[in-house]
Write a structure and sequence with these properties.
binds adenosine-5'-diphosphate; about 300 residues; binds magnesium ion
Length: about 300
């Protein structure tokens, strides 16, 4: 298996890669960070973890990466209990990209940083250069091997963190708020990059995010967390229902959905479904106009 450059990780037959069973986690100071965590991640999925600050997203990602162990319950990676796997066996398959790239990057140059992981996994010198070049290509940083890390922009640093994991051959990427701190264009580019890795390279992705407006554009499935529990999960259509329900779980609808919801429920425009993206909303409005129903139905 190889997720470098042109090669694609075989999607498998919807194989379950990661499982959390009846998971609970308490920090040593007694904070109960997670309770009753049950989830399955299948090969090739692109999953979002949504939830307000403190709801347990980062803790869950660390548990799925084997950086922390459940206080009770288990995490299984390819049906093996993650406690029983050597770090090497975990890190060949799963990698976590921290929220702040400065917590992850440590070498002086891009090459040294991206090469560090595969070097430790014992790849030969000739393989290393190739792996680094391919990983950089995959994150749109081709040819930046000699660049000094401290001279990179924040968004470039985030992409180098991802390259470091891809160079090790990771098939499952866990990302903690990969779009946080990026400018609007950087946010879109990051989402497109992740989408590309998922769809074209076959990388399974689970990302914590507050970028609600991007969720329906890119993600297959959403897990909503609140106070350490997964309180809702499903496709974006299943999760994003009404502003009231979203407010209960301390989230909001994508902005365009909020607008159409108001037009339907406050102004009486007869939309039959709630569009979640600008494209869907545009089609819905044009359909209403074509059917002659674009005028409000009530005062
Ligand atoms: N190192 C720690 N020690 C004690 N409590 C922690 C620690 N890290 C996080 N927590 C607590 O665990 C809960 C979940 O935090 P976290 O997983 O960081 O949430 P999120 O990523 O959704 O913001 C919060 O109540 C937080 O205060
Ligand atoms: Mg967090």
């Amino acid at each position: 298996m190889n997720n470098q450059c042109g090669q694609k990780i075989p999607a498998g037959d919807n194989t379950v890669r990661l499982v959390a069973q009846d998971g609970e986690y308490s920090y040593p100071d007694g904070t109960i960070a997670l309770s009753d965590i049950n989830l399955q991640v299948r090969a090739g999925e692109f999953i979002g973890l949504l939830g307000p600050n403190g709801s347990g997203k980062t803790t869950l990602l660390k548990l799925l990466d084997g950086l922390l162990y459940m206080t009770s319950g288990e995490v299984l990676l390819d049906r093996m209990n993650i406690r029983k796997l050597a770090p090497r066996d975990i890190y060949r398959k799963v990698g976590l990209v921290f929220q702040n790239p400065d917590d992850q990057l440590f070498a002086a140059t891009v090459f040294e940083d991206v090469a560090f992981g595969p070097q430790n996994l014992g790849f030969s010198r000739s393989d290393l250069a190739q792996r680094v070049a391919c990983a950089l290509k995959n994150v749109d940083m081709e040819g930046h091997e000699k660049k000094q890390i401290h001279k990179l922009s924040f968004g470039q640093k985030k992409r180098i963190c991802i390259a470091g994991l891809l160079a090790m051959g990771h098939e499952i990427l866990l990302l903690d708020e990969p779009t946080a701190g990026l400018d609007p264009q950087g946010e879109s580019r990051m989402m497109e990059l992740l989408y590309h890795l998922n769809r074209e390279r076959g990388v399974t992705i689970i990302m914590a995010t507050h970028s609600v407006d991007f969720v329906p554009l890119f993600l297959d499935r959403v897990l909503v967390m609140s106070r350490g529990r997964i309180v809702k999960q499903g496709t974006p259509e299943e999760v994003f229902t009404s502003p009231e329900e979203m407010a209960e779980i301390e989230l909001r609808l994508p902005q365009v959905a909020e607008l159409i919801y108001l037009l339907k429920h406050e102004d009486g425009l007869p939309f039959d479904k709630l569009p979640l993206t600008v494209g869907e909303a545009r089609r819905g409005i044009l359909e209403l106009q074509a059917s002659g129903n674009a005028a409000p139905q009530k005062q």
